[in-house]
Amino acid sequence: MEIIMAEKMGFCFGVRRTVEIAMKIIENKEQNVITYGPIIHNEDLTNYLKQNGIGYVLNVDDVDERKAEKVIIRTHGAKREVIENLKEKGVKVIDGTCPYVMRVHRIVEKLSKDDYPILIVGNKDHPEIIGVTGYISNVPYFIVKDVEELEELRKQGKFDKIKKIGVVTQTTEKIEKVRKVVNYLMDFIPEVRYFKTICYATDENQNAIHKLAPSVDVVIVIGGKHSSNTIKLYEIAKSYCPRTYHIQNEKDLKIEWFNINDKVGITAGASTPDWIIQNVVNKIKEFERILERGEIYEKRS
Asked: What's the fold here for domain 2-10+200-292?
């Protein structure tokens, strides 16, 4: 088998920055440190941090029970009120929010002050979007995942009195989806201010899989099952290559996915550490050796 790695994949700048903060704390053997929410959407890394003394909480009230002295804000960020509440408790807050997410916070804060209603393209239940809404004040805002949801809100009359709107997106959104939403808005709202808040790493990773997926027989997408950017990489790859599989780590791989002469493309979400990617590559090479020996080989489609 030939293994071909996507030109761009894996840890983005924001994730690497936050993970390095946590790793430094482990290296310094600091105690009573937790993260607000899973630091990134990767169970392997979250478990590693927990085993080394850095667990996480899902709400501010749990901080007291953990007797935390320091709290790392996860890569996705948090509402302003969460950070304020943590400081009121007397803990030291280490802000690990991705700088690209911080930029979205600043944009919606400014739009609010300028009396612009706000449309966010993304997943309303994603921690990044929940955090973003905490910086919107005194203006209506809407969250849609696609143009179909936007159309439904319009039918309900939600935009009847709106003459201007500001648009931001989850940093991991697909640009094709965002273009459809913005173009649709321009059909019925006189003033649409769109801010491209998709981070450059997401753009690069998505462009790389657009290029790779059509040229291979199998695509392996590595990343957390709840990782938004990983899921989008999977959707893009699947649109080109039917034999596309989303895995968290090498334990999810199955030998029956592969044929002996396959070209295997590999990409990984922004929350996937390099060591997990390497473990996946090693496991596929192990499968190749088994197939070459003919131990369980049969032609697969």
From this structure: Cobalt-precorrin-4 Transmethylase; domain 1 (3.40.1010)
Catalytic residue flag (residue 151):
no
Does the structure show a pLDDT above 70 at 295? no
Please tell me the CATH code under which domain 100-194 is placed.
Answer: 3.40.1010.20
> Residue 56 half-sphere exposure, CB side, CA atoms within 13 Å?
19
75 touches 15 (CB < 8 A): yes
Quickly state the pLDDT bin for 64 (edges 50, 70, 90).
confident
Domains 2-10+200-292 and 13-97 agree in fold = no
- Which parts of the chain fold into alpha helices (H)? 13-27, 43-51, 62-66, 80-88, 99-113, 127-133, 147-155, 175-186, 200-212, 228-240, 274-292
Distances 268 to 121, 237, 240 between C-alpha atoms, Å:
23, 11, 17
Residue 239, token pair as written in the block: 């649109």
Q: Considering 27, 128, 151, 288, which one is annotated as catalytic? A: 128
> 242: which residues sit within 8 A by CB, 6+ positions away?
none
pTM above 0.85, yes or no: no
Q: Which of 222, 275, 166, 286 is nearest to 41 (CA)?
A: 222
Say which amino acid occupies 211.
K
Going by the DSSP 8-state scheme, the letter that residue 23 receives in this structure is: H
Q: Is the dihedral of CA 73, 75, 78, 80 positive or negative?
A: positive
- What's the residue count for the chain? 301
pLDDT tens-place string over residues 6-53: 999 988 888 999 999 999 999 999 999 999 999 988 888 999 999 999
